[in-house]
Amino acid sequence: MVAKNTICLWYESEALQAAQFYAETFPDSSVGAIHRAPADYPSGKAGDVLVVEFTVAGIPCIGLNGGPGIQHSIAFSFQIATDDQEETDRLWNAIVGNGGKESECGWCQDKWGLSWQITPRALTAAYTDPDRAAAKRAFEAMMGMKKIDIATIEAARRG
Known about the structure:
By secondary structure, the protein is an alpha/beta fold. Helices cover about 35% and strands about 30% of the residues. It has 2 domains: about 1-70, 2,3-Dihydroxybiphenyl 1,2-Dioxygenase, domain 1, CATH 3.10.180.10; about 70-159, 2,3-Dihydroxybiphenyl 1,2-Dioxygenase, domain 1 (Roll).
């Protein structure tokens, strides 16, 4: 059953592949129901996968195979909080190494153009530190990074 409020993500034709990748990559993620088109439609045929229900890190989503022409925007992203460098590296490398691309400050895009923020909890703690000078140093260190390096953030925080 589809949740009352669900994030709908548009894919050209690869919603199932994306959902399977997310389920294999992120904890608390799974692929649910797969719905096939009951009739031909502008970008597909009867029987094609039309909608995929899935969960990403506990968030219910549907993937819609809506055809070409619609692109994901950086204005929407999933932010995944990581507990350590190993988890940060694993998730970053899974996204970037599977046809994705790096961006700045912990952001990357998967091969379908969806944006992800792989954000270590240590980074959030650093830039929200009540010691504003420590927060500033950590924030400035982050600004020069692509994938977040926790040791560098913590060193900057300490001064």
